[in-house]
Amino acid sequence: xxxxxxxxxxxxxxxxxxxxxxxxxxxxxxxxxxxxxxxxxxxxxxxxxxxxxxxxxxxxxxxxxxxxxxxxxxxxxxxxxxxxxxxxxxxxxxxxxxxxxxxxxxxxxxxxxxxxxxxxxxxxxxxxxxxxxxxxxxxxxxxxxxxxxxxxxxxxxxxxxxxxxxxxxxxxxxxxxxxxxxxxxxxxxxxxxxxxxxxxxxxxxxxxxxxxxxxxxxxxxxxxxxxxxxxxxxxxxxxxxxxxxxxxxxxxxxxxxxx
Length: 259
Ligand code: ZN
Ligand code: FE
Prior knowledge:
With 259 residues, this protein is an alpha/beta fold. 35% of the residues lie in helices and 25% in strands. The model has no long low-confidence stretch (mean pLDDT 97).
């Protein structure tokens, strides 16, 4: 029986621990201190590290963790991360013995060039770093809008019940933007109510699910008429082009400056 634990870090990061009661895998340990504390409290031994991309808030704790536990570090081949022992490409499979876990690797470039996501098909879990967020998506730092849109399309094809473990607690501010661009979506109001209650109780809004994201995340809904109309009204979709990619690009640009 495997568990996933959220370890809050910095202002709004979640570092994820997957454990079987004895051994644990750390996903994106940006900071070692809260990971070490969580492992000690639960009597767990670190057995592997999984990285989604090279940003410091996802990899910063790796050197310190390796001082305590000499474990394999899995991560994207194409993201210039020096600590990786097992570089991964799209379609690879990570097979761990302790805890017993299989993870498929999905290349999701856009936020960074090499960004990958891990999909535990048997458990129905997705660890997607800074690619897909609750109600939103990552910023495009190294890729193109077309790349990030393709990456999100791949994640959206996973089963709807898939639990989505994002790396940041951005859900409420993302949903405020979602309501701005799609005010007529009733699923959005329901979700805002539920997520607001979770935050008020001090709980993470994550994991989300692929089904919930498809129903409420504007970046997965670029074919919706209302999004096109909102973008046009805001003067953010100039030409006749209302293709999903044009809508996605305009949404991402608007979100970048949305307060
Ligand atoms: Zn990042
Ligand atoms: Fe991040």
